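Could you join me in thinking about how sequence relates to backbone shape in a protein? Would you write everything just below, so we can both look at the same thing?
***
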Amino acid sequence: MEGLRSVVLERSESLRATGAGITIRTNGWRALDELGVASKLRQTAMPLQGARDICLNSGKQREIPLG
């Protein structure tokens, strides 16, 4: 897009599975909508269904539904 400055914080020569992901919350989607790129990203985005919280001291786990 012309007229927008950006800073690349991380890059790679190719896409690869790493076990990591990027979470985009509501305000992030609004910003991407304003930039005109959200609709293209939504074509491949996977909605976040839930999360797992793990206590480092006890190892106790808790499921957190987000959907």
Observations:
- Residues 1-67 form one domain.
- The chain has a mean pLDDT of 87.
